């Protein structure tokens, strides 16, 4: 992990900094990356994206709840997303973090909430992506996903992070166990120990291409989450070489990041999904975006001095 990224993530934990950004961040530029604080605002943004041929993943932001009431509120927010997608007719699925559903309180509580959400997804013929979180939650996340995948099949998928040493083994397990295993492949955005994750960017990049190729060749659906032209071009060449049809994979990018490239990929005939976060609890998500691309920090600073 780069020094700049480490610094940003460390500074983000400062109470003074976090207090300032939480108070003024949406006005200063966080709205570029977060589609509003309400579901209604987010749905309107999804409609605009759909009009340009982009499909969407909605994410009600939140993680690390501390009591059952908060966990149920987050669960209800997810149910509301699925109902709003159905009612509005927009082309969107959803993603979630299981820590927001009570994972740190108990596995049983989290499973109870996940089943409520996945029952709704199945009722509406939609899909729920479980985000992979920090390393401390990976083993329990894999355990719960295995249980839910057996119950809900095509209606549930998972995120896999390239920067972890264990990733290839996890993928082999998933690919060999399930007939239809839809995985979102990312590099990873958490601050992890070098005992469990590649500390150098070049190694993460190499492993990322490795798992993309591995999953594309497996016959399962691949969601390639990247803003990197090198990766995009590599995928284009790889699927052409191996005669992998376009309906077996999609590109994914974050809301507010490289919108012109997103639309260009649609024009070229590729499926392009935009990850659209919304909600009041946007600080953690936003700071990870800053850490990934420090130029985003200058965007915020510039807005601080605009009249």
Automatic annotation (TrEMBL):
Binds 1 FAD per subunit. InterPro entries: FAD-linked_oxidoreductase-like, PRODH_bac_arc, Proline_DH_dom, Proline_oxidase. Pathway: Amino-acid degradation; L-proline degradation into L-glutamate; L-glutamate from L-proline: step 1/2. FAD binds at residues 132, 161, 187-189, 201, 226-227. Its EC number is 1.5.5.2. One of its GO terms (biological process) is L-proline catabolic process to L-glutamate. Its cofactor is FAD. SUPFAM superfamilies: FAD-linked oxidoreductase (SSF51730). The keyword Amino-acid biosynthesis does not apply. The keyword Coiled coil does not apply. It holds the Pfam family Pro_dh. Residues 43-299 form the Proline dehydrogenase domain. Substrate binds at residues 97, 288-289. Keywords: FAD, Flavoprotein, Nucleotide-binding, Oxidoreductase, Proline metabolism. It catalyses: L-proline + a quinone = (S)-1-pyrroline-5-carboxylate + a quinol + H(+). GO terms for molecular function: nucleotide binding; proline dehydrogenase activity. It is an enzyme of class 1 (oxidoreductase). This is proline dehydrogenase.
């Amino acid at each position: 992990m780069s020094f700049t990224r480490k610094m940003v993530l460390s500074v983000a934990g400062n109470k003074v900094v976090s207090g300032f950004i939480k108070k003024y961040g949406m006005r200063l530029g966080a709205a570029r990356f977060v589609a509003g604080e309400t579901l209604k605002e987010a749905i309107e943004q999804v409609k605009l994206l759909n009009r340009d041929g982009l499909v969407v993943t909605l994410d009600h932001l939140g993680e690390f709840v501390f009591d059952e009431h908060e966990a149920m509120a987050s669960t209800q927010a997810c149910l509301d997303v699925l109902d709003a997608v159905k009612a509005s007719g927009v082309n969107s699925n959803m993603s979630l973090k299981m820590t927001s559903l009570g994972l740190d309180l108990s596995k049983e509580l989290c499973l109870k909430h996940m089943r409520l959400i996945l029952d709704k997804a199945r009722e509406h013929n939609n899909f729920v992506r479980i985000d992979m979180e920090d390393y401390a939650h990976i083993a329990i996340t894999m355990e719960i996903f295995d249980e839910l995948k057996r119950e809900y099949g095509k209606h549930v998928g998972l995120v896999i992070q390239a920067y972890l040493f264990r990733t290839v083994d996890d993928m082999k397990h998933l690919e060999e166990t399930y007939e239809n295993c839809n995985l979102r492949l990312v590099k990873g955005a958490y601050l992890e120990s070098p005992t469990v994750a590649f500390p150098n960017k070049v190694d993460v990049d190499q492993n990322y291409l490795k798992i993309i190729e591995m999953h594309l060749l497996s016959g399962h659906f691949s969601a390639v989450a990247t803003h990197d032209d090198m990766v995009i071009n590599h995928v284009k060449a790889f699927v052409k070489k191996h005669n992998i049809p376009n309906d077996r994979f999609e590109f994914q990018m974050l809301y507010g990041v490289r919108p012109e490239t997103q639309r260009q990929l649609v024009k070229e005939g590729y499926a392009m999904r935009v990850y659209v976060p919304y909600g009041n609890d946007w600080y953690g998500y936003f700071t990870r975006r800053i850490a990934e691309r420090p130029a985003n920090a200058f965007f915020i600073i510039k807005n601080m001095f605009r009249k």
